[in-house]
Amino acid sequence: MKKIKAILLIIVIAALASGCSQGIKYEMSRYTKPLRGSDYGSLKAKKHEQQQQQQLNALGVNEKPDKLPHEIKSASYSSELSNHVSSVRGVADARVFTADQHAYVALVLDNSGQGMLKSKPSGEREAGTNQIPYTAENSIHNNPFRFFLTVNDTSQLSDRFVRTVTESVKTLQPSIKEVHISANKEFMYYMDEFAQVAWGGESLEPYLDQFNILINHQFFNGKIMPNSLKYYRNQQ
């Protein structure tokens, strides 16, 4: 009986030792795991981003989109690019339009990624959950994206997250030279309206003036404020 107890005690001690060893290995793996695609804000991710930028600078490559106003003469909605960007960790939904060698990306965020946002003072990060929606049919306050995580300005997004979205577009469509990205909820609302036009089988050509106003206001400091496309169409 004593021998059995001794054997059992040895087994228990061995199991505990094994469990402890596994625990140590797990803790070590937390600090040695490879960089994940959804890890946008850690020190390791930032260091990786800095190294990539230094390499690009050494090659004389400038990946930042231009800031000159765009005159878009033809645009098309890409469901393929929209779905591809939506699959990026941290992205809840996306609308992507292309024009010439440019892609214009509207997106809203979720919690499937880490560190998408830079540290900002309180009040600059907007989720929309505390806003009281108005009931006017054409009001922007009926924005269905108001409950998603969004930001006012692209500068509030982490560099690595922006690069990841940019690369996802260029990988799928190599002809794209510049990718313009916004996670502003109102911009997403307006871009969704244009997407609905495309989904309905209509041409975007009659609405290119409004599309130009929207794109230039969002990305190139355009002074004319965009209107809801529903409101614009009702006035025609």
Q: What are the salient characteristics of this protein?
A:
236 residues, alpha+beta, four-stranded mixed β-sheet, two-stranded antiparallel ribbon, 7 helices, globular
Question: Can you describe this structure?
Answer:
- It is a single chain.
- The protein is of the alpha+beta class and 236 residues long.
- Helix content is 43%, strand content 12%.
- It has 7 helices and 6 strands.
- It has helices spanning 2-32, 43-58, 79-86, 159-172, 185-199, 208-219, 229-234, and strands at 76-77, 91-99, 102-109, 125-126, 150-151, 178-182.
- The protein has a 4-stranded mixed sheet with strand order 1-2-3-6, with helices on both faces. Strands 4-5 form a two-stranded antiparallel sheet.
- Strand 2 (91-99) and strand 3 (102-109) form a beta hairpin.
- The longest helix is centred in the first third of the chain and has 31 residues, at 2-32.
Report the oligomer: single chain
Structural class: alpha+beta
Could you report the average pLDDT, rounded to the nearest whole number? 75
Main sheet: which strands, in order across?
Answer: 1-2-3-6
Q: Rounded to an integer, what's the Rg over CA atoms? A: 24 Å
β-strand percent reads 5-15%
Roughly what percent helix? 40-55%
